[in-house]
Amino acid sequence: MEIISAEVLPSEVVPAEGLLGASWLLIALPLAGAAVLLLGGRRTDRWGHLLGTATVVGAFLLAVLCTFSLADVEGRSVDVDLFTFISTGQLDVRAGLLYDPLSAVFVLLITGVGSLIHVYSIGYMAHDPARRRFFAYLNLFVAAMLLLVLGNSFVALYVGWEGVGLASYLLIAFWYTRPGAATAAKKAFIMNRVGDVGLALAIFVMFAQLGTTSYEGVFGTVGTLAGGTITAIGLLLLLGACGKSGQFPLQAWLPDAMEGPTPVSALIHAATMVTAGVYLIARSAPIYDETPTARTVVLAVGAVTLLIGAIAGCAFDDIKKVLAYSTVSQIGYMFLAVGLGPAGYVAGLAHLLAHGFFKAGLFLGAGSVMHAMDDSVDMRRYGGLARKLPITFATFGLGYLALIGFPFLSGFYTKDAIIEAALDRDDAWGWVLAGVAVLGAGLTAFYMTRLMLMTFFGRARWADGVHPHESPTVMTAPMVVLSLGSIGAGFLLVKAFPLSDWLEPVFGEEHSAEHVVAPLTVGLVVTGVMLLGVLAAWLFVGRREVPVTAPVRVSPVTRAARNALYADTINESLLMRPGQWLTRALVWVDNRGVDGAVNGLAAGLGGSSSRLGRTQTGFVRTYALGMLGGAVLVAGALLAVTSG
Amino acid sequence: MIDAPDLSLAALAPLLFVFGAACVGVLVEAFAPREVRHPVQVAVALVGTGGGLAATLVYAATHEWGDGAGDVTAAGALAVDKAGLFLQATVAGLSVLAVLLFAERGLDPARSAFVASAAVPAGSPRDREQLTATRVQTEVYPLALFAVGGMMVFVTANDLLIMFVALEVLSLPLYLISGLARRRRLLSQEAAVKYFLLGAFASAFFLYGLALVYGATGSIRLGEIRQSVAEDGGDVLVVLGLALLIVGLLFKASVAPFHSWTPDVYQGAPTPVTAFMAACTKVAAFGAILRLLYVAFGTEEWTWRPLVYGVAIVSMVVGAVLGLTQTDLKRMLAYSSIAHAGFLLTGVLGLGADGEGSGLAATMFYLLTYGLTTLGAFAVLTLVRDGDGEAGHLAQWAGLASRSPLTAAVMALFLLALAGIPLTAGFTGKFAVFRAAVEQGAWPLVLVAVLASAVAAFFYLRVIVLMYFSPPAADGPTVGVPGVPTTVVLAVTASATLALGILPGAVLDLAEQAARFVG
């Protein structure tokens, strides 16, 4: 197998000056917001949500200004040195930020989409008594996520990585009195832990082998390592990325995470946090450049997840779960893209950004629908909502079209770019991967059309007492803004202002090689398959009446899809059960063996204490005798030592 | 012709301050009108101890040390050297805090922890009268000052006879003030008598040892003894003398098996006096042990090493194990003091041949941290009271945290420090002495020490568990509002316990620089 190794231009990183020197404020602002809201307690209830929104909007404005100043910097990479984070012996970790084109696009995405979702949440959480806590956690998330993408070393990234994990856990379990939410939060936390161990081990290996964890140091010297070590680092990083991004085999937590409030699903579990894995792999490009093996595994993970997510998405009736599996599948596309190497980085990141807009918009739309339907998520109880919720329908519809890759909307450009990049490999695997991606596109069109039909069209199947109404402006406005992104992001990022130009200092110049298959052909094929998917959905769902309860007698394929291809079952039987047995065995050993020994020892000590205590009679004569005995012993011992 | 002995007034200034204040205190007691006596005595005592502290610090800072460790002055009787000054400063500093505890008037309804008229038979009608009267007696201040002066001479004594005199000067006032408790007077008087009898017994050992060493070497000067021992080797008389000297000193340091007085006296004595003894006497006694073993018998390391080894183990084990079943907090802290004496001996073992190891610095640092922590712990004990004085029984402390969170938190800090939990002074100190011992190859001893620490941690943590996780007793004790003096003591000791746990560097460096006796 041959992988074209790109000439990664080691662009000059210069110290930050002026506005960029203050880019730490990006993190500090939301962090301060979180601190004020969490420490201020009930006193901040009345204006807490406004403060929380203001910090993120402020960070967004600052990010825009910073990006403009970055564009003027030679090499477009600046280093913001903050303070010494860890200094022990050989390990010297400087806390600092790296503001380069890659982190800049992420910062814009996080703060931009974050601002919209904060605004939306003002309306969505208006009636929740714990709204302040919600905004505090959201602020905490934004701060941690910004640290994740801005840190200039793997350790800083790790701190942010764990920070977003914590925020995600807190927000999934936001309604912690619901058993479902509490369980989902624990599941997310534990599965993320599996991935985090991988990331931590990767950092340990880097430090042990290279003596540094900063991007500059690691990327500069990684080529000197043995091939096996680099592959190990690559695979461990991939494990971390899989955990955070809900990729195979750690994908099962993401759909369950939809138990959290919908803005959380939109921001964290669709637009930003779950794409951290893609960021990690893109950031570690110099490492993967050295290890074709690990890069191939990234490809495989992406392709497998893409299909798993798409298949599972076809079977669920819970609107948020469908969107969640769609997220899993779309991140699969991004993994596939970054797994393709230099050719795919830009395509994958463009898809990531476009996806951030339309998927966030879709989730906000779903939230608006749930708002109208008394928090029901069952699409079988929806139907005919297009007329009742016109704005939601319009914005959701645009997001839908963008996601399935309708020509000239966002997803069309970015998904096609990934497929082209796969074909450009010009080998059998390239064709297989492109085939998988095209098949995924068809499935995406199928499940999303099914979702649209069941939600907005057909006969109303609402539960009694549900009176749908459009959401307030504070919620619809962000949806409108995001739908603009659904329309234009793809064109802007791929055609008008190519992302590849902006990212050139990070990934090197784009390969202007001839495409193996003409882009027009690819576009036509993908659009054809997409239309087939839409048609199939119309035939299966649109033509007939949707039953209010899910049919029980279904084909094995449907059953497998409904069970998300038995991911939970596999996890439970392979990991959970043996784990439980091991725990039980350990508890037994602990109770009988360890506790027995400890209790026995304690009893022994207590007994000897009481017996020894009897020497403490309170009589001076006994004490004096004891001292005399001691003195004789001391003298005897000394004499024995000298004469012996 | 008589040569005038060389007297360096600057070097003696700390002692002059303390003893001068003690003499002034006696005069104040005799001549000052009753109303002003208490404030004047407190002021005199604070000036004496504080001046002593300041004088040591000034002398240490301004003296031209050169390469030497210090000077011998007062006709060879006193060795004012670096280590001696460090120990003097420690004693003086701790005694400033102890005097502040003595001066507290806000806690006991009778305005003082000390009995007004100690000669009145306990339980007699006159005794019941003075229980409620707010008359206070103030002999305790000059007495304590004499004891402090004795301790400061003790740690700088350059000959055995001066050491013995200092031992008596520091002991006799302590015997007396142990018996001055206002409440539970019988217990207090019993403690005083026991302490006196056993103390006299121990002094006799010391004196006998002195005589034997003099007989064998023909000198009482530590340096001359060293020379003589190095030349002739240790014959039986010297070894026997060393054994008896050590017994006398180990008694003062409350090292098992010479510890039996400690629980009874610590419990019976007025709590401020207990705090004073636990902190300052320990420093003085270990200062003398270190000097004796470093200067006089430094060349005989292999003679005393097994002995210190064994005694350290016995002391740690006895202190830790016996502490487990104590139900009275003061007794518990007494056993803790015995266990800590064992830990300190691991540092003494770290002295190495001729004091080459880091044991001296480690032990001095440990003395400082332990003194501060234990003083603070006893100060907290004075706050928690019931109708009959201090509420010392463990059961009375149940649920204290819900009633008085600050008191419980401060106590918890001191207990954690005593247990040697990281980020407290106790950990740094233990780490220092254990490292010193390991460097001298005494890792089996350190292993025992760590195990003993684990056992001892149980009874410290039990108090914390009681305070925080038990429901409060229905007729529990009240937590008094401390006056300014006790507040100052608590603030200083608590912040020092934390500071020496988190940033011990500066003080450790100081102890290392100071770790030299003049030989």
From TrEMBL, chain A:
Coiled coil: none
InterPro entries per the UniProt record, alphabetical: NADHpl_OxRdtase_5_subgr, ND/Mrp_TM, NU5C-like, Proton_antipo_N
Cell location: Endomembrane system; Membrane
Keyword Metal-binding attached: no
Membrane topology: Multi-pass membrane protein
All copies of domain NADH-Ubiquinone oxidoreductase (complex I) chain 5 N-terminal, residue ranges: 85-135
Domain NADH:quinone oxidoreductase/Mrp antiporter transmembrane: 152-436
Matches recorded under Pfam families: Proton_antipo_M, Proton_antipo_N
UniProt keyword Transmembrane present: yes
Swiss-Prot/TrEMBL GO biological process terms: ATP synthesis coupled electron transport; electron transport coupled proton transport
Origin superkingdom: Bacteria
GO cellular component: endomembrane system; membrane
Positions of transmembrane segments: 20-39, 51-71, 102-122, 134-151, 189-210, 222-243, 264-282, 294-316, 323-346, 391-409, 429-453, 474-497, 517-541, 620-641
Keywords for the protein's UniProt record, in alphabetical order: Membrane, Transmembrane, Transmembrane helix
Gene3D superfamilies xref list: 1.20.5.2700
Recorded GO MF terms: NADH dehydrogenase (ubiquinone) activity; NADH dehydrogenase activity
NCBIfam families per record: NDH_I_L (TIGR01974), PRK06590.1 (NF005141)
Alphabetical list of PANTHER family matching this protein: NADH-UBIQUINONE OXIDOREDUCTASE CHAIN 5
Protein name stated in the entry: NADH dehydrogenase subunit L
Species this protein is from: Blastococcus aurantiacus
Top-level taxonomy: Bacteria, Bacillati, Actinomycetota, Actinomycetes, Geodermatophilales
TrEMBL record, chain B:
Pfam family, one: Proton_antipo_M
InterPro entries named in the record: NADH-Q_OxRdtase_suN/2, ND/Mrp_TM
Record has NAD as a keyword: yes
EC number: 7.1.1.-
Domain NADH:quinone oxidoreductase/Mrp antiporter transmembrane: 157-454
Main location class: membrane
Reactions catalysed according to its record: a quinone + NADH + 5 H(+)(in) = a quinol + NAD(+) + 4 H(+)(out)
Subcellular location: Cell membrane; Endomembrane system; Membrane
UniProt GO molecular function: NADH dehydrogenase (quinone) (non-electrogenic) activity; NADH dehydrogenase (ubiquinone) activity; quinone binding
Recorded topology in the membrane: Multi-pass membrane protein
Stated name of the protein: NADH-quinone oxidoreductase subunit N
Taxonomic source organism: Blastococcus aurantiacus
Gene giving rise to this polypeptide: nuoN
